Amino acid sequence: MADKPKRPLSAYMLWLNSARESIKRENPGIKVTEVAKRGGELWRAMKDKSEWEAKAAKAKDDYDRAVKDFEANGGSSAANGGAKKRAKPAKKQAKKSKRDDSEDDDDDESE
Asked: How confident is the model at residue 14 (pLDDT cuts 50, 70, 90)?
């Protein structure tokens, strides 16, 4: 059986993938984290994002269609860990403070 389709990239990620090389060219020796930081600054400063938002919307439509096809062909939304939720760790029982213990002892003596 085929794997469940991967979620589509956001408009920002589509843009960053296309702009990453030019950011590296303009800033030789820049770290990966700095590329992402600079990309975020450029994205926020960008006035017209419609081109990338349209590409992201198309990618989301394609993804939605692919998921419907996947589920229609016997795949489930939980297949391959797609919708697994992380189990919450068990809560620890609150410890009683020494003061609480001594108050309990006092109550027992007065009865």
From this structure: very high
**Is residue 99 pLDDT above 90, yes or no?**
no
This model's pTM is above 0.70: no
Residue ranges of domains in the chain, CATH in brackets: 11-73 (1.10.30.10)
Q: DSSP string covering the chain, please?
A: -PPPPPPPPPHHHHHHHHHHHHHHHHSTT--HHHHHHHHHHHHHH-S--HHHHHHHHHHHHHHHHHHHHHHHTT--TTGGGTTPPPPPPPPPPPPPPHHHHHHHHHHHHH-
99/34: higher pLDDT: 34
